[in-house]
Design goal:
The protein has twelve helices and 15 strands. By secondary structure, it is of the alpha/beta class.
């Protein structure tokens, strides 16, 4: 059951309040390079990304946001660290959201200026605390065993939140990320008892596409099962399209989003009599260009395959020199092994066109 939260809007996309969980990513280009940034944004949109974030380290990047926001097919969030001037420039340039911790700005009049400008344009602010960026004060409390790291993360975030609330600003979403799963889980669980703002969830600095996807899947899987996710990012040292693919597949695997085909394939064993891995990889590559929700199975055992993958819409099961084509576990026909791929593609096309 989803946690009940307030609802905010990033552009026209609702976050929290029971809205569908969205997938975010971040551009990895120089934001000042408008052409490269927009090219990456359009690729991410085609991959299924809902919301994109761009780093804004200087005025050149903030100015570039004007064209980027105008041409982007999805809402753009400006990632600001310490400068209220950059936050104001990003708002003027059309950013649909800010990633900004008001406490980092320090001057009350500067925080007020950003909050008022954001409120005037209905632009939410994401308050985020990473485990590695808590203040020296909270780090010392942890060292003195006065609190745990998740507690320090939550209390730090609440300080930033109160700065905005004191100014009458409540279009807020919260992120509490660590590079390890247990700390992240504990922080979100604790924050869920302290506020009703929507959560931006993820495991920060999770790693490469190989290891980071595993860590993110475990962490986000737990948070999703507890209803503690309203929007997410899979943070990888990889092409941002890998982040989007992983995020969509995580949501699909827990039944929270249909985002194109799902491939079911057996892990193989000593009974296999064909090169199933090559076949499965060819099918996966073919399915990458399809947007229609469909379950496709590639099984290595003609005896058990159709039954074990009966939830698949279409599938094949290999045998010695030949294989079976089936739908919903029911065998349709038997074909030579060399024709298994083409026969499966034929069935996929037929299913989609029905």
């Amino acid at each position: 059951m989803r946690r009940k939260t307030r609802q905010i809007h990033i552009g026209g996309i609702p976050i929290g309040g029971g809205a569908p969980i969205t997938v975010q990513s971040m551009t990895k280009t120089d934001t000042a390079d408008v052409a490269a940034t927009l090219e990456q944004i359009h690729r991410l949109a085609r991959a299924g990304c809902d919301i994109i974030r761009c780093a804004v380290p200087d005025e050149k990047a903030a100015a570039a946001l004007r064209e980027i926001c105008a041409e982007s097919p999805m809402p753009v969030i400006a990632d600001i660290h310490f400068s209220h001037k950059l936050a104001l420039l990003a708002i003027e340039s059309g950013a649909a959201g800010l990633r900004l911790n008001p406490g980092n700005i320090r001057q009350p009049e500067h925080i007020k200026a950003v909050a008022e400008a954001a409120a005037a344009r209905n632009i939410p602010i994401r308050v985020g605390v990473n485990a590695g960026s808590i203040s020296k004060e909270w780090r010392e409390k942890i060292e003195r065993a006065e609190c745990s790291l998740p507690e320090a993360m939550v209390e730090s975030a609440l300080v930033h939140i109160r700065l905005l609330e004191d100014l009458g600003f409540n279009q807020i979403k919260v992120a509490l990320k660590a590079s390890d799963v247990p700390t992240t889980i504990k922080a979100y669980r604790l924050m869920a008892t302290r506020c009703d703002y929507p959560f931006h969830a993820g495991i920060t600095e999770a790693g490469t596409a190989r290891t980071g996807v595993i860590k993110s899947s475990v962490g986000l899987g737990i948070l999703l099962s507890e209803g503690l996710v309203d929007t997410l990012r899979v943070s990888l040292t990889a092409d941002p399209e890998e982040e989007v693919f992983a995020g969509l597949r995580i949501l699909q695997s827990v039944g929270l989003r249909q985002s194109g085909p799902e491939l079911i394939s057996c892990p193989t064993c000593g009974r296999i009599q064909m090169d199933l891995r090559v076949l499965a990889e060819k099918v996966e590559e073919y399915l990458a260009a399809i947007k229609t929700p469909i379950k496709v199975a590639v099984m290595g055992c003609a005896v058990n395959g159709p039954g074990e993958a009966k939830e698949a819409d279409v599938g094949v099961a290999g045998g010695k020199g030949e294989g079976l084509v089936f739908r919903k576990g029911e065998i349709i026909r038997r074909v030579p092994e060399r024709e298994l791929f083409s026969a499966l593609i034929e069935e996929i096309k037929a299913f989609i066109n029905e």
